[in-house]
Design brief:
Distance between the termini: 62 Å
Structural class: mainly alpha
Largest sheet: none
Shape: elongated
Number of domains: 1
Number of strands: 0
């Protein structure tokens, strides 16, 4: 893919991601009901708290368990909605470079006719009959 087409594809993918996030965000968060987002001040939680009976400690523990459970349910509800909004664009952004890989330029070098390349290649090899540089054998 040539650079211009790749740049256009990036803009298209970015636009699709932003459009998805806008539409999915609107659909997921615009119609949240009070039953889906429950806090200790919501009417559904207060009604459940009225059913707690017993001593002060028992009522306190009952109400605390209700608040904790409603907080967990709210967390799960909001987390799932955030995942629906954010995960597809993230996955598309991660997968995009693999779907449209860049062309790597091919560098053409002149081939040397002499043996200079052998000398350069062998300069990195330590030969058994030559001690490595820095070894002082006395």
């Amino acid at each position: 893919m040539d650079p211009k087409t790749r740049a256009l594809a990036k803009w298209i993918v970015g636009g699709v991601c932003l459009l998805w996030m806008a539409l999915a965000g609107w659909l997921q968060f615009s119609d949240l009901s009070e039953n889906e987002i429950q806090t200790h001040a919501s009417t559904a939680v207060k009604e459940r708290m009225r059913d707690c009976e017993g001593t002060f400690q028992q009522r306190y523990e009952c109400k605390e368990a209700i608040v904790i459970q409603s907080s967990r349910e709210t967390f799960y509800t909001v987390t799932i909605r955030i995942i629906i909004v954010a995960l597809p664009p993230i996955l598309l952004g991660v997968a995009f470079p693999f779907m449209f890989p860049r062309r790597r330029p091919v560098i053409h070098r002149q081939v040397e006719d002499d043996d200079a390349w052998k000398q350069r290649a062998q300069s990195h090899i330590i030969h058994p009959h030559q001690p490595p540089a820095g070894d002082n054998q006395a």
